Hints:
2 helices; four-stranded mixed sheet; Double Stranded RNA Binding Domain; elongated; alpha+beta; 4 strands
Amino acid sequence: xxxxxxxPHHDLPAEHRYLAQERVQELERIGDELHSLxxxxxxxxxxxxxxxxxxxxxxxVLVAQGREESFHAALDAACAKMETQLRxxxxxxxxxxxxxx
Length: 101
């Protein structure tokens, strides 16, 4: 799985990039069908904004965002939302494979 972490305006410390990459790698254990993850870290008006874009099987794209006052809270919120979306997607795949509608 390919993971990229982008800090477009370079107004965040580099250790945020490493923390985000480690935290996002944990999502791989949930979604077997993940092809790539793209994380964007931004700081605008004293609010941290984290956006996670996941490309999964059959060209589908899942997006989760977190906007909080601290970087860690924003990252946790975005990861929790993405984890929920991945679990829901995985559950739908399992239902479809086993004939449940």
